[in-house]
Write a structure and sequence with these properties.
The chain is 76% helix and 0% strand. By secondary structure, it is mostly helical.
């Protein structure tokens, strides 16, 4: 069997990517857990007299998850500035320490890019969709269900986006 030689530079890039992915995933899971707890705490309780409909329960669960994702991005943005300043100071105080080498500029830059992309997606897509989805009743003359609400929310979101783009460009 022929041995495959791996370029050390490619290996370093690969392990750097895996390291950044794992750190981003761990931070995302921790922030999502905290944000889901916050959103669940402040979510308005339904009246106990109302019959719980399975479709409404699914809608409440989906909107809670979407709002938790938005709060996750907000927590990430709030924590990222102080943590990037602190990590930069730690790197300058201990430049040759093995335990601090994972705090490099690439990791901080990727985290900033993820927060910037996530905040734009949440602000312009996720939160408006969650609101329209929560308020939707389903398209007329279609069978009722969650997908009917999704279709109505997407249509309203596209109409509002066209209205905003038309207002800006005219």
């Amino acid at each position: 069997m022929a041995e495959v030689s791996i370029d050390p530079e490619q290996q370093r890039v690969f392990y750097g990517f895996v390291r950044e992915f794992v750190i981003s995933l761990i931070l995302g899971i921790c922030f999502y857990t905290v944000s889901y707890t916050i959103v669940s705490y402040f979510r308005r309780n339904r009246d106990r007299d109302d019959p719980i409909i399975r479709e409404d329960t699914a809608v409440y669960m989906i909107t809670t998850m979407l709002c938790s994702i938005a709060v996750t991005v907000s927590l990430g943005a709030m924590v990222l500035l102080p943590s990037s300043i602190i990590s930069n100071e730690i790197r300058h105080l201990y430049p040759h320490t093995y335990y601090v080498k994972w705090l490099n500029t690439s990791l901080i830059t990727d985290l900033w890019n993820l927060v910037f992309l996530g905040s734009n997606l949440c602000l312009f897509l996720l939160l408006p969709f969650a609101y329209f989805f929560y308020e939707a009743e389903g398209l007329p003359e279609t069978k009722k269900g969650v997908m009917s609400r999704v279709y109505e929310a997407v249509i309203i979101l596209l109409l509002v986006a066209a209205l905003v783009i038309g207002t800006v460009w005219v």
